[in-house]
Structures are given as structure tokens and as C-alpha cells.
């Protein structure tokens, strides 16, 4: 069985596809900071994985970024998240879910699903180690 050699254009296409995906995941991660049902850290980890395979410059920018880099570093080092971030995330989560359940959604099973999602996210946030202030 013979394998085709990768052409230079294949590598070029792969590199730019990974860069575009990394930018997309970074944008989703940034949105996740403000939208409680959108996870921040997994999207930033995905963008880091894309960048490390395509652009050392973008990877270093992401890891060294004042705001975004800390999410990745804390996750990789298994340190946890700050108490302020936990409280902010939980308050925002329950305000948006509560508003949706009581004022937007009229279908009972969708309300129940939203509440179950909020409970699941809350349990997950409580299970993550809380960073101590230095």
C-alpha cells in the first residue's frame, strides 16, 4: 500500500485551517466569559491546541495574554478558579436561566431541561478547586 506524499499546499491549507479554528475557539472562549452557558476554558484549550500545531506566535500570544492565558495555565496546573469568578459565574448563570424560565420559555420540558443544565453547571463549578488569594 502506497501513501501519498503531503504536498506543500496541503501543509499550507492545514496550517491556515488550524489558525482559523484557533481564532474561532478563542472568540467562543471570550464569549464564554460573559455568557454563563458557554464554557470558557474548554474553548481556550481547543484554541491553544490549534495554535500549537499551526502558529507558535499565536500560541505564545494566547498563553501570555493577561486575561485569557490565566484560564489555560490554571487549568493545566490544576490550580482551580478564583472565588470571585465562581460567584460571578453562578450569579450570572442563575439570573439568565431564571429569566429564561420565568419570562421567555413557555414549554414546561424546556424549562426543566434549562434548570437541570443550571444545576449541572453549578455542581461542576462547586467541584472545581477554589484559588486562594496570595
Could you provide a short overview of the structure?
With 134 residues, the chain is mostly helical. 74% of the residues lie in helices and 3% in strands. Helix 1 (8-34) packs antiparallel against helix 2 (41-52), helix 2 runs antiparallel to helix 3 and helix 3 (56-64) crosses helix 4 (68-76).
Keywords:
134 residues, mainly alpha, 2 domains, 2 strands, 74% helix
Gyration radius, to the nearest Å? 19 Å
- First-residue to last-residue Cα separation: 59 Å
Strand content: under 5%
Strand order of the largest sheet: 1-2
Helix/strand-derived category reads: mainly alpha
SSE run: HHHHEHHE
The profile of the biggest β sheet is: 2 strands, parallel
Mean pLDDT: 85
Q: Number of helical runs?
A: 6
Q: Residue ranges: pLDDT <50 for 5 or more in a row?
A: none
Helix content: over 70%
Overall number of domains: 2
Oligomer description: single chain
Using DSSP, what is the number of strands? 2
Shape: flat
Structure description:
The protein has 134 residues and is an all-alpha fold. The protein folds into two domains: 8-76; 81-131. Helices cover 74% and strands 3% of the residues. It has six helices and two strands. The protein has a two-stranded parallel ribbon with strand order 1-2. It is flat and about 55 Å long. It starts with 7 loop residues before the first helix and ends with a strand. The mean pLDDT is 85.
List the helices and strands and how they pair.
Blueprint: H1 8-34, H2 41-52, H3 56-64, H4 68-76, E1 81-82, H5 83-104, H6 108-127, E2 130-131
Helix pairs in contact: 1-2, 2-3, 2-4, 3-4, 5-6
